[in-house]
Amino acid sequence: MVEEVTLYRAPTTVADADSIAEWLAERIDASVSVRDRLLSRFADDTLPEAFAAARVLDPSDPETGNTMLGIVRYEQRALEHPERAGGVLYDGLAVQQALWGRLPAEERSLDHLHVPLVDRVLGTWGDHDGRWHKRVNVLGQPTLLSVPGLYEAPAKPEQYYKEKQKHALLSGDAPPREVLENEVDGDFLVADDPRTTDALKGYVLQAVDYLETGEGFCDDDRCRLSNPHRQPGVVEAQLREPEFCPEHAHYE
């Protein structure tokens, strides 16, 4: 049984860990606390190399890692100045393992779940189709919750990509958010979306439910515990009523 949940802030994002913790505490029978950024709290001299080793180098190659000195130094700067990081996909399971080993020994058991909000893009390898897939969360201990993954992992409506491409051809740059929102029929989340905190709440609860029950995602795509692969599905599951399916209504 999960007795304690600790969330970690991601100060370079709009995600409000304190608000998520307050929502979570009302729905589970465990104490919930918030700490500052995990990547700062438990960083050591070898963590930059661990991130360098977890880098995805090719979207269709399961082998990861570039630990050349320049890359390791980049990862060190990214840990010290996270606002400068970006544009890199990491093996979520490798990052999870690296961070688990840096948790205090007395806090590693499954009755104390750690959920860091992270500002890195994480992925897992798909044996079924031979490519990497971006993820919103990587379940387990700790459960990693990728804030940019919320925007990037679930596919946006097809019209979004068409409008983006059309704008780029005409102007040479990315279209402003309001242009895409006006041109595309369908709801989706974009970087720094004001709905980010609310959308992430269900993903944090998924982490607790997974350790409690051993079950993965809910099959009901209207439930906060589901795992939609498209942005409109994320909006439907996380931001619209009802919050939960009948099976998971006890969380309401």
Q: What's the short story on this structure?
A:
It is built from ten helices and eight strands. The chain is of the alpha/beta class.
What is the topology?
Blueprint: E1 4-8, H1 17-25, E2 31-35, H2 38-41, H3 47-53, H4 69-80, E3 89-91, H5 92-100, E4 112-118, E5 121-126, E6 131-135, E7 137-138, E8 144-146, H6 147-152, H7 158-171, H8 177-183, H9 196-213, H10 231-239
Parallel strand pairs: 1-2, 1-4, 3-5, 4-8
Antiparallel strand pairs: 5-6, 7-8
SS field, number of helical segments? 10
Compressed to H and E, one letter per element, the order equals: EHEHHHEHEEEEEHHHHH
* Main sheet makeup: 5 strands, mixed
Q: CATH homologous superfamily name?
A: Collagenase (Catalytic Domain)
Radius of gyration computed on alpha carbons: 18 Å
Mean of residue pLDDT values: 92
Query: What is the count of distinct domains?
Result: 1
Number of strands: 8
Which structural class fits the helix and strand makeup? Answer: alpha/beta
Instruction: Provide the β-strand percentage band.
Output: 5-15%
Query: Which regions have little confidence, pLDDT < 50, spanning 5+ residues?
Result: none
Shape: globular
Give the CATH level 1 class. Alpha Beta
Order of strands, widest sheet: 2-1-4-8-7
The separation of the N and C termini measures 19 Å
Q: In CATH terms, what is the architecture?
A: 3-Layer(aba) Sandwich
The name CATH uses for the topology is Collagenase (Catalytic Domain)
Helix content: 25-40%
